[in-house]
Specification:
Length: about 325
């Protein structure tokens, strides 16, 4: 009996160590991606032997191109550029150089805290390829280096400092990252240099004449673009609307000009703010179904997608107030 208890305790201890070890590594939140636009989110779970992390250095792997880092409050960003090992074709143009190293500096991520550092770019490698994002945490008295790559057939968990890795997988639609296809998922869809993410529409009540929908638009290119038209076979017209408070009343109005998507920035739509309005719909949107939508950009051209319909109360906690025209 006593031996069984000791064995069980040892097994639990081993499992606990394995679990905490997995969470102790710096890693990517999403570890698989199809070729096309990708947001690499690096999770930093601790400091260096108890010390706060003051800088995070990431070496960009070959096959992840046109990279732009996201600022973190309280940190500054420095970038090193250089030539790629090969030339890639991105949105119809050849790319042979770009960001090679990104470093966030001047912050203080305490050992007891957790944070994420984000890089947006284009996955340009072949399915089956593994990309390693070598990462170094700099602290007051030393570093934590996550730069080890496993040998063929080796379990990465056997390494003391495994580099965060991304495995390239085949996409569901080989044309999706060129602006065709009609994905209904929340993964990014590329139309030229515009990444369309997190599309969704809200279920409507019977007799409701207009329906709301939301998408996020990120311009990963070097020039501003404009959303010049929207259309759907299920509505008389589709417009971009803005909700705002005027004299203590929440009102809604269509944008008077085309929506500009600045280079290197993201336009985020959310309930209670910027959104899409489907006017004079043929049938109310039903939860579990999808709504077709065609977007046309001045530079990126046309792209078709499907917006999954979510429950009528989805997003109400984010500012989905009643409004009037």
């Amino acid at each position: 009996m006593h031996r069984k208890l000791i064995a069980a305790a040892a097994a639990c201890t081993t499992a606990f160590i394995a679990t905490t070890s997995a969470f102790a590594h710096v890693s990517l939140v999403e570890r698989e991606a199809a070729p096309g636009s990708f947001k690499a989110v690096l999770a930093i779970p601790h400091g260096c032997e108890g010390e706060a992390t003051n800088s995070v250095e990431v070496r960009i792997p070959e096959g992840f191109v046109s990279v732009k880092p996201m600022p973190n409050a309280g940190w500054t960003i420095s970038i090193q550029t250089g030539d790629y090992d090969q030339t890639y074709t991105v949105h119809g143009r050849e790319v042979s150089s770009g960001v090679k190293v990104v470093k966030w500096e001047g912050g203080a991520l305490e050992n007891a805290h957790y944070d994420e550092f984000v890089l947006r770019g284009i996955v340009a490698g072949e399915p089956g390829t593994v990309l390693y994002f070598d990462t170094i945490q700099h602290c007051a008295s030393g570093t934590e280096e996550w730069v080890e790559h496993p040998a063929e057939g080796q379990d990465p968990h056997e390494l003391e400092g495994p580099a965060p890795s991304l495995t390239i997988v085949a996409g569901n639609d080989s044309h999706a990252h060129h602006g065709h296809g009609a994905p209904g998922a929340e993964a990014g869809l590329l139309a030229g240099s515009i990444s369309i993410e997190e599309p969704w529409a809200r279920a409507m009540l019977p007799g409701q004449p207009a329906g709301g929908a939301w998408i996020n638009l990120t311009n990963i290119g070097e020039e501003d673009d404009r959303l010049i038209s929207l259309s759907s076979p299920v509505a008389e017209k589709v417009e971009v609307h803005m909700m705002e408070v005027v004299e203590d009343v929440m009102t809604m109005r269509p944008l008077e000009e085309a929506l500009v998507v600045p280079a290197g920035e993201t336009i985020t739509m959310h309930p209670g703010g910027l959104h899409l309005m489907f006017m004079q719909v043929t049938e109310p949107f039903k939860e579990g179904e999808s709504v077709p939508l065609t977007l046309e950009f001045e530079k990126a051209g046309k792209v078709e997608l499907e917006l999954p319909v979510k429950p009528a109360n989805h997003g109400r906690g984010s500012g989905g107030h009643d409004h009037k025209h």
